Amino acid sequence: MQHTPGREDTSVPLTGRIVESFGRRVLVEIAPEERLPAELFGKRLSCVCGDEVTIRPAPAGTADAARVIAVAPRRSRFARTDSRGRTEVLAANLSLLAVVVAPEPASDPYITDRYLAGAALAGIRSILIVNKFDLDTATAPAFQTCIAEYRDAGYPVMLLSAARAQGIEPLQAALRGETAMLVGQSGVGKTTLTNLLAPQSMRSIRTLSPSTGEGRHTSVSTALFRLPGGGELIDSPGVRDYAPPMIEDAMVQVGWPEFLTLAPQCRFNDCLHLREPGCAVVAALATGQLSARRYDGYKRLLNIMRGLAPGYERRR
C-alpha cells in the first residue's frame, strides 16, 4: 500500500528498501506493505532498485516530498557499460540473476553470454530460464544446441511456459529465499512471468511487434516484488543489448566457467585463450570439447570491452 500519515510524519530519519525507481524518483518500502514515494537528495546521490536507504520524511502538513539522504553499502551490484563506456548500476543486493530466453523472438546468445558474464563478475549466481518451450520453434536444432551449450557449461537451465503456467514449480523453488532479477531481451516473456510469480504486480503485457517480430518494451521501470512462497523478484525493462563493466582482459573469462576449468592446464598463467602456445582452451576447442559458438562469444566480448571501456587494460 502507499504511505498514509502516521508515526513517521516527523523529521526523524527512517530506513527502507528501494522497490521501484523512476530516475531520481523512487518508491521506498519502510515496513511490510507500507511504501513511501521519495526523491533523491543532492546531485551526487544515486540509488537503484534493491538498495537499502535512509530517508527523511517530509514535515507534516507540507506538500514536500520525502528525501533519500543515504544509501547503505551494497552486498552486490549488477551493472552494465553504456555506449559511452560509463558504468550504470541496474540493481543492488541481488543473490541471483535469472536470464530469460525464448525461441520467439529469437534470443541473441551473445547477449545471453554477456548477461551471464556480468553476473559472474558481480559475484551473483545465475540461471537460464527458457520460456515458451511449448512452441514448435523451441524444437529447432539450432535453438536446442544453444541451450545445451549453456547446460554443458554448468548453468542451471529451466524450461517453462509462462503463458500456460507450465514448469513454474521448479522455478518457484529456485527463487525461494533469493533476491532475484529477471533480465532478457524484449518480448521473451519476463512480464508474463513476473505476473505469474508475483500476482500482485500485474504489470502491463504487450504482444510482439507485427512489423519486426521483436518484443516491445512493456516494463518501463525496474520494480521489486515479494514472492508468495518467499523471496523477492526484480523485473526490469527489456533491452536490445548488454555489456558488463569490465576493465581488463583477464576479467572477461570469468563469464566462461568451462574455460576456467581448463585454464590451470594452460602453459601461461595469464593466458587469454587466443593465440598463446600451449593453451588448453584452444586445444579443447580444436577437439570439439568446447562450443565454437561460446568461444566466439568470448572473443566478441573482449573486442566490445576493448572498444568501450575507458582505461581498459588490454594486454595485447
UniProtKB/TrEMBL annotation:
Residues 92-240 form the EngC GTPase domain. PROSITE patterns: ENGC_GTPASE (PS50936). It comes from the Bacteria. GTP binds at N131, K132, F133, D134, G184, Q185, S186, G187, V188, G189, K190, T191, T192. The keyword Nucleotide-binding applies. Keywords: Cytoplasm, GTP-binding, Hydrolase, Metal-binding, Nucleotide-binding, Ribosome biogenesis, RNA-binding, rRNA-binding, Zinc. Zn(2+) binds at C266, C271, H273, C279. One of its GO terms (molecular function) is rRNA binding. Pfam families: RsgA_GTPase. Its cofactor is Zn(2+). Monomer. Associates with 30S ribosomal subunit, binds 16S rRNA. One of several proteins that assist in the late maturation steps of the functional core of the 30S ribosomal subunit. Helps release RbfA from mature subunits. May play a role in the assembly of ribosomal proteins into the subunit. Circularly permuted GTPase that catalyzes slow GTP hydrolysis, GTPase activity is stimulated by the 30S ribosomal subunit. HAMAP family: GTPase_RsgA. Belongs to the TRAFAC class YlqF/YawG GTPase family. RsgA subfamily. This is Small ribosomal subunit biogenesis GTPase RsgA. It comes from Steroidobacter denitrificans. The gene is rsgA.
